[in-house]
## 1
Amino acid sequence: MTIEELNVEESEPTEREKLFEETHKRSMERVARIDDMMQAVVKAQVVVEGSLIEMLEACGKDPAHYFFTSKKIKALRDIDTGVGRPMWDLLLQASYVRNELVHSLNEAKIKEESDKTREAYLAITQNERQKQSICDMTDTQMVTSAIYHCGSHIVVATDKLVAEKKR
């Protein structure tokens, strides 16, 4: 075989290579579409997860018994922590978005869970300006905001629980 023949062979990909290239391109486009959301939501959840652990400890619970976020939330929402049930339900709903992001990348399901999170967030928001802000946010902004909103309530309630125990 001459060099010219080798160059021709190398320049023409097989059908399988073309299929692989197209599939890879679609996969990378899909990941790029949700990359920002994944990073923002997972970071927010990790931060709030630390607050959940602190609250479990403040309530005399061993966090090691509650590996999954949902288990932590469900254990704490049944205790009088000062964080209301709607706030726990919002955090639980937002964690479903995180689960879809890291376990399936199913865009339709991510959108569905994001929409449910927006509805839950709006339901606990009293101020009309804040409600409009929630409606105007992208799904990424809204889910992240909902998680941090819940987290701030958890931090305040935990501080209060710790202070009461010291008395």
Note: The chain has seven helices and no strands.
## 2
Amino acid sequence: MNRFTSGVLIAVFGLTLVACSATTPEDSGLPMSSGGPTAYDGEATYDADLDLWLADGWPVPDPSATFDPDAPYISPQEANTKLMACLSENGWDLKAEGTTSYSGNVPPEQWESYKRDLKDCLIQNRIGIDPAPPLTPELARNEYEAQQQTRSCLVSLGLTPPELPSYPVYEDSLLVDQVATSIYDLALEAGLDLTTDPSYQGSCPDPMNTWGRN
């Protein structure tokens, strides 16, 4: 039985949350980067029937597109909700892990079927086609400050979320390893599930849902 936890940010932005990376003995099937066709074994090609760019059958951004912080986009939380609903309709038993990832168990003999359904659900919901923001020191600083502000907000509500790593550690993790650290997922990893009370998100929104726009 393959146990996995898949972070939707992998599909949406090409990033891995510190507490939500794929943990299977095989590739999870989620594209590990949405930065362009060079991240895939196959070249991105346009499918006119779907009106999507695909690489190895996975939906990817238009190779000529650039990140626009003001453009409409699908948030990781919305993407996770849509993806879980679609996969559940196909019979997969999944459990939400925080707001932007899910987990489940897939027998080895059904792994290819799961990946096929995952690919179809990404295509149906047009998940993974938004250009990712470039990973720059400016982005790292903005996102780190947003995470710090959210942590301070949670503390003001009487909660005790874990400390974020120092900025140099955060920046190195993001720019070198392409791992985005989230206070919401650090809290979940520490046993504090902030999704149990919607007022937390209402008062202190998760910056990962506005990644690149903070």
Note: Residues 46 and 53 are 4 Å apart (CA to CA).
